[in-house]
Amino acid sequence: MKKTEIEPFFATLQAANPEPETELEYTTPFELLAAVLLSAQATDVGVNKATRKLFPVANTPQAILDLGIEGLESYIKTIGLYRSKAKHLMEACRMLVEQHGGEVPRTRAELEALPGVGRKTANVVLNVAFGEPTMAVDTHIFRVGNRTGLAPGKTPLEVELKLMKRVPPEFRLHAHHWLILHGRYVCVARKPMCWKCAVAPYCDYKPKTPAP
User: Which CATH number is associated with domain 3-20+134-202?
Assistant: First the structure.
């Protein structure tokens, strides 16, 4: 993708969805952190089903600790890898209570120090909860970055750093949501829906897939 095509690419995505939001349901930074931690290798729909039952009962680090590991597992057992996720979430809650007064920290280093929280999760929390212009590269963004030519790279970090360099500043806050939603619903893995893609004119992908 040529540099001159990046601005119209994002302007088109912005026009279609001016205020994109995560599809994970949350009301506080901690609920978001917990939901993102649970969402690894799981769908947002599946996570939302579990947290709709969990959060009314326990939506603070201390309340999760009070549930105990078996109590927490009983709420999230419909999510893949629930045992290891429950362990990580418990350990993260303990650190939040002991080191951060039960509050979610606002720096990448402090977030990544929490068990089960990697760079992608930290980027989601920084962006969605605290309004930082970060790029949380998941499988969708990795695919869209490479397929369109916007930010080709062999690793998620390479794609992330390229996006931070190539996405114009005015689009950075919402860019990761536009790219995730585009990858989830239009630029899908097996057969991208090029025939109904609004940003196809700016995309390097060849051949464009025709309408079925």
Answer: 1.10.1670.10
